[in-house]
Fold:
Amino acid sequence: MKFYLWTLSIYSVIATVLIVMLAMQNKQLKTAPPGRAPEPLDYSKTYDLPVGDSPIRGNVDAPVTIVAFSEFECPYCSKATALVDGIMEKHEGKVNLVFKNFPLAFHPAARPAAMAALAAKRQGKFWEMHDLLFQMQDNLKNQNNLPEESYMEYLREEFVNLAASLALDMDKFNADMDDQALVDQIDSEEALGRSVNVGGTPTFFVNGVKVPEPGQLEEVVKHFLAGQTSNKL
Structure:
């Protein structure tokens, strides 16, 4: 009888260990980031990306256009600004940048920040607001776990302060922040991104060619500069 109980106890321990191991494995599978092979660089495939009302930085007649699908709460977008700025400085006058808003659903500050940037654009200060929003990106987070309404009010105050620092007409800025036309523009740019298989931010296109990884951006720019392929704005 004692031998039976001892054997049963051993089996119980083994079963418990196996259950714990399986649970840990399942947790790892659920939390591990999905593996995704990078897309190949394909110069033969180009996408039609009309500029529309999107802001442009640099020489509008430059032979190379970078289109960036980006948003202001994404930390990778913030880091990529230095990369793009470096490329544009290195190839001054030959490369321009078009900014397309692509706010991600899990970044609640991204859409109102896009509204602030486009409202500033109406007063000729998009890129100044663009730079400030990325500089203050940590302030966009809901660090105090405010209720949604209070959080949106907090963000609005932050944007108003930035607009004031740029000496914008505050009445116009506040009115434009609530303008449905800007909501429609953001929606349109987001829809354009989805139509060309933008799945995250930042996503770059150079003269219509999708750049699989930001680290390949200068390689693609140099490819087009070598042939002086003109864009069509």
User: Anything to note?
Assistant: The beta strands are 56-57, 64-70, 95-101, 203-206, 209-211. Residues 2-31 form the longest helix (30 residues). Residues 1-35 form one domain.
